[in-house]
Amino acid sequence: MSRINLILFLICLAGLSLSAGCENAAQKTGKFTDEEMEQIPLARRADPAAHSDGLVLSVKSETITIGEVVTPVINILEGNVAAGSSWEDFSAQARPVVKDAVISKITDILLYQEARKDAPENIDELLDSAVENEVKKFIASHGDNYALAQEAIAEQGMDWRQYREFQKKMLLTRQYYVSQSLLEDKPISHSQMLEYYEAMQQKGFQFTRLLSREDVIWEGFTEFRLIDIKLDNDKMEVGDGETRKDAAIRKAAELIDRIKQGEDFGELAKVYSDGHRKEMGGLWTRVSEGSSLNPPHHVLPPLAEKMEVGEVVGPVESDGHIFIMKLEDKKKSGVASFEDLQPRIEQEIQMSRRKVRFDKLIGKLMNRANISGLDRFIDVCVEKVWSQRQATGSLSSK
After folding, report:
1. CATH architecture of 220-332
2. How far apart are CA 239 and CA 73, in angstroms?
3. What is the arithmetic mean of pLDDT over 368-392?
């Protein structure tokens, strides 16, 4: 193992187990972000089922059982295959899922074997320390209740010794993947990132693993509270010589004065508003930018567009109503600029490059492993899933 490989190996392993305490060093070596770690295939592996169904697939010195594949696949397919599906329809839907599960298992084994081959001599000592941190985090995730954590690993068919061995294998394999990626990382130029952004624009901002629609495009809206005084309210107190409109405007002016003196708009709405949202303190659901409301509330969106957040306006007359409105929130529609998205774009490009390298690495390992009987094993797994689903009565007979 070369000196630079060894250094990266140890840095990555330390970063995986002690990331909170090594942030500065990790940044200097290209530490993966949380989003990137989620994209590493190994980070999403389910814990293995500890059972066998006779037939196994040999991958060098290790084996994959049917049971390891079938149990998680049944969970994935649950609800995605219609009851009463024919064998042909079921097989067409299930086989790609089963194949992915089998390839993932093979990938785990091959990467682990490569990682073990390249690991330093004291790797077991380093891994033991890292695994203990994983165990502590697992117990903490169950409210620091050791018994509950033990029940959780038992549900995966493991005891603590098996759980530690599983974590050791996963840490070593993931570390190997990270170290290989870091070795080949190259800087991404400003022009490459700008070209990526422009390509996103041309495609109507189709969204990616790190960029959701909310990150890039947002809709404008206004959100307001309303005190609605209806002129036809029989309970309205009308003074001598006043019309109902005069009384409503007077009441609105009194309420506006109380609001200016610091009284809560929402609490006043609960008492004095005649509107259908009075119980919510007069708070309306957000109104999308450019939307209109039916009369008598049609006057409100254009008014809200001109207001500042926190501003109160009134009295506003409209079709037998006197309104007092407070703008709670407002946002103009827009699209994120290149400068806003540049850090995410850089991560996205780097992740894409790493995935290409990962796929090439797996391709080489698969070719070198020369696994025999793969298609037959996948077919048997599909048949096993079918028979188990049949037994539940959710699918028709073959």
Report:
1. Roll (3.10)
2. 76
3. 85
